[in-house]
Specification:
alpha+beta, two-stranded antiparallel sheet
């Protein structure tokens, strides 16, 4: 609502599905005895007025 009203120029979408997939991948590697990076990064996605409709459809 704030972005559509012009009160917010940008925010970030933190991908819960991507975070879950990254965690599962790390857990499977650890279970197999493989090395896993200490930190696993899941890229965020920039949300702007130009692309907000794409993200609103996800919720």
């Amino acid at each position: 609502a704030a972005m559509q009203a012009g009160d917010l120029d940008a925010t970030v979408f933190q991908d819960a599905a991507g975070q879950g997939a990254g965690a599962l991948d790390a857990a499977l590697k650890l279970a197999k005895g493989e090395k896993v990076e200490h930190k696993v990064y899941v890229p965020f996605q920039l949300v702007t007025p130009a692309n907000i409709d794409k993200f609103l459809k996800k919720n």
